[in-house]
Every structure is written in C-alpha cells, then in structure tokens.
C-alpha cells in the first residue's frame, strides 16, 4: 500500500530513483510498516529505514516484520514517561485498508485536529500511555 496521495512514489521517483540500496530513510512517526507507509517504498528499493515510533502496537508490527524500530516520540526536549494520546479509529475503512491508530495519535491534539476529533470521537477509542521523548 502506498502512502496517501502517492507521496512516497512521487518523492522517490523525483529525487532518488537512481539511488537503489544506497540511502538511509528516517521516518518519524512510522506507524505500520505495510499500510500508508512512506518508508515502505524506500525499504523495497533496498534503503536502510530508521523507523521512530512511540506506539507500542506499531512497534510490534515492525518487529514482527523483522524491521528495526526505535520506540520514541520526537520533540524539542528529552524526557521519559510523557503522556501520549493513542487514538484507535477501530478499523475505519480508508484507501483500501483499515485505519487503526494513524489519524490522531500524538503528544497532544492541536486545535484544528481537536475540532476534527470531536466529529469522529464516537467512532474512536482514546487511551493515554507513557512514552519516551527524544530531541
């Protein structure tokens, strides 16, 4: 499954098509390795992917696929056990797949997303976990 708007293929083809197997792709907020993944296109071309992802469910999916993943979230500070909002969309259909935690999970919901979240809150489950934050 390609990323939204085919952005993974657009970027790869425009800038890196001649660099098979020679790059390193850093993906902050890697989500799943196989659905709406920007790094999947680069991994398929032989690139080393450095996946950074705070959600333990997504980290498990990367590890199950044999991929390395760093279980952190990124910010401008370093801290441990920081509150992270995990929003489960309960498998809503989207672009030929089913969305789980991709949509709203974050250190906090910015105003525009908080308003959007209110519209879909009835069809989601919110839980809070402690995560490691690295700058």
Distance between the termini: 30 Å
Secondary-structure element order, N to C: HEHEHEEEEEHE
Secondary structure class reads alpha/beta
Q: Helix proportion of residues, in percent?
A: 25-40%
Average of the residue pLDDT scores: 82
Radius of gyration, rounded? 16 Å
The residue ranges in which pLDDT falls below 50 over 5 or more consecutive positions are none
Number of domains: 2
Strand content: 25-35%
Biggest sheet statistics: 3 strands, parallel
Q: Which shape, going by the Cα principal axes?
A: globular
- Major sheet: order of its strands? 1-2-3
**Strand count:** 8
User: How many DSSP H or I helices?
Assistant: 4
Explained architecture:
With 135 residues, this protein is an alpha/beta fold. The protein folds into two domains: 4-73, no CATH class; 79-134, no CATH class. The chain is built from four helices and eight strands. It has helices spanning 7-16, 39-44, 56-64, 111-120; strands at 24-28, 48-52, 69-70, 73-74, 79-88, 92-94, 97-99, 125-134. The strands form three sheets. A three-stranded parallel β-sheet has the order 1-2-3. A three-stranded mixed β-sheet has the order 4-8-5, with no helix packed on it. Helix 3 links the parallel strand 2 (48-52) and strand 3. The protein starts with 6 loop residues before the first helix and ends with a strand. 21% of the residues are buried.
